[in-house]
Specification:
alpha/beta; 2 domains; six-stranded mixed beta sheet; four-stranded antiparallel beta sheet; 8 helices; globular
Length: 250
């Protein structure tokens, strides 16, 4: 059941809840009392000024930072379950001269087989099935260093979907991607989240795609300052104050 447009309570529905989450690093309070509620199938954009704590929140959810508060995941009509997360980091760099191919990368990540050995037909088919999620079957033998920004994001997205997670986290997925590539990537994310009832949390500084693709926007600056539809948040006083826009409208 897809809950992408469910804005009510969480009773009997699949959801992720971040409750009163706080993070202290080096004696400094980075996040304070963050509350975030996502239904399965929703795409939520996390926005905020530089230094607002967006990456810290992501790392806390990933289990890379200690935190106070709770992160819980519930299936429909079920108890709390272990949350399986897929993660696409921000603009990883690869040596353009590196001979490693997309197939080599997948083999190294999803199997224990050394990438320098011949790849069995069944394993190659598994990689093709993964790439099919992002319409990237034609990239399987391409060198990682030769991929465009959009192609690399699609490959990393396919890798993050194996195995299929409950929550997909993307850190600036549109960075370094041209306009055509942005639209293709967002179309695929929209299709994937609907097909698999997948929750997607995406950090972005590009607001042009929000109204078309995103269900909710969360404005963060140490705590959640505003949350709602793209229009509600982008036209809020909290948004203008956070980005020092004065009286301008987004």
């Amino acid at each position: 059941m897809n809950h992408a447009h469910h804005h009510g309570g969480c009773a009997d529905s699949c959801c992720l809840q971040v409750t009163d989450l706080s993070v202290r690093l080096g004696g400094e309070r980075i996040l304070e009392g963050v509350n975030l509620h996502m239904h399965c199938g929703q795409m939520v954009a996390l926005i905020g000024p530089n230094g607002a704590g967006k990456s810290t929140l992501i790392k806390a959810i990933l289990g890379q930072h200690p935190y106070e508060g709770s992160i819980t995941f519930h299936r429909s009509n079920g108890p709390e379950q272990k949350l399986r997360i897929g993660y696409v980091p921000q603009s990883p760099s690869f040596d353009r001269a590196d001979p490693i191919t997309v197939l080599d990368l997948f083999v190294s990540c999803i199997s224990s087989r050394p990438a320098f050995l011949p790849v069995p037909k069944a394993l190659r088919q598994t990689v093709l099935d993964c790439l099919k999620h992002v319409r990237g079957e034609n990239l399987i033998d391409k060198r990682i260093g030769a991929l465009s920004g959009g192609e690399l994001q699609r490959v990393l997205l396919a890798l993050a979907l194996e195995p299929m997670p409950n929550l997909l986290i993307l850190d600036e997925p549109l960075s370094g991607v041209d306009v055509e590539g942005m639209a293709l990537l967002m179309d695929m994310l929209h299709e994937i989240r609907n097909r698999f009832d997948l929750s997607i949390l995406m950090i972005t500084h590009d607001f042009s795609m929000l109204s078309k693709y995103v269900d909710r926007v969360a404005l963060l600056d140490r705590s959640i300052l505003a949350i709602g539809t793209p229009s509600e948040v982008l036209h809020s006083d909290a948004f203008r104050e956070a980005f020092h826009l004065g009286g301008e409208k987004a």
